[in-house]
Each structure stands twice: as C-alpha cells, then as structure tokens.
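--- STAGE predict ---
source: upstream dedup step, 1 unique chain passed
mode: sequence only
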Amino acid sequence: MQFNAGAMLRPLSKAVLCVALLSSLQGCVAVVAAGAVGGAVATADRRTLGAQTEDKGIDLKAATHLGDIVGDAGHVNVNSYNRKVLLTGEVRDEAMKRAVEDEVRGITGVEGVMNELAIAGPSSYTSRASDALITSKVKLSLADKKTVSATSFKVVTERGTVYLLGLVTQREGNIAADVAQGVSGVMRVVKMFEYISEEDLRSMQPPLQQQPEPRSAS
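--- STAGE serialize ---
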C-alpha cells in the first residue's frame, strides 16, 4: 500500500492545530496529544514502536511532575522524540529552569534533555496561537516537498522559533530547515535532529513491489 503523506497531512495538520491550540491555551505544562494523529502516522514513523510508546509516556509523566514546580509562574511545553526531550516555553528564573530539567532527566527512559526554556513571563494566548499556526504551516509545507517524508519530522514552535526533530539524513535535515525558514512568521529555525546515514534510510524503506508481468494473449 502506498503512503501518501501530502494527502494525509492536510486533514492531519488541522487536527494538530486544534490540539496545539487547546494545549497552549489550557495549561501551564502542555503536552502534544499524539493520539490525535492516528495509527497511520505511527506506521510511517522512523522510531521503533517501543520508542514511540515511551515518548508518549515520558510526555505524560513530565506534564504530571512539572505542575508542582511551575505552577502559574511559567508555561512549559514538553516534547519527547526518540527518548530525547525538548523543553520550550517560559519560566520565572534560572532556578526553576534547572529544576524543570532535573525533574525531566529523572523520568525513566529519558536519554537526554534539550533545555530551550526562556526566563520570562508566560507567553500570551495570542503568541501561542500564532506558534500553533506556524507549526501547522510548516507541516503542510513539508508535506508538499516531494524530496522528504513529512512524517519523519516533529515540528515545535515557540515564540516564532521553529524546532525540528527527527531521525533523518543530513540531506533531509537541510531541506526541512530551508522549507521551515521560508514559512511566513518563522523567525528562526533550530535543527535538533538525530542523523542517520543514507544507507540507514534505504534500509528503513519498504522494498518496492514488483509488478506482475502481463500475460500474453492466447
């Protein structure tokens, strides 16, 4: 069965946008709800199913644990990809920033933390809605790019900065960064990829099915 990333991501991006908006507007510690994207994405994801399951668990545990640390004094977004956690948002001071990172590092399964928290007041609802829209537009732009697989990337936007995660080759990472930089509203693009080789990429792709030879007319 052929997987049409562009056809799937258009309705998908609308769902992601709605989830992102709800997450950003409702809580101090936000987690992207992976269940909203359905099973089709899981089958195209380059992470193992075990890693995908662990990432969901890490996100949920982090959201639960960080509520007491952050409270109303900050706004933290938690995104785990292949057991590496990206922290974005705003916290009150350096002590809170360290406390959030230490708490996340202590969660079972976490292999690394990328702490991009800013020391500032919580972002406005307007800013979060703008970030969610940018994320949606970047996803759509990646889906339209035929030289990369859009579902191989995780896109996170914070205050106009787009963070790109994924198991990708350097070629794919550079293409995705260029695509994201061309989206209106994007101020900066940060690549946080785990790089794989082109050979690794070929081994991940399903083998091409041979078409049956046409029968000759008798």
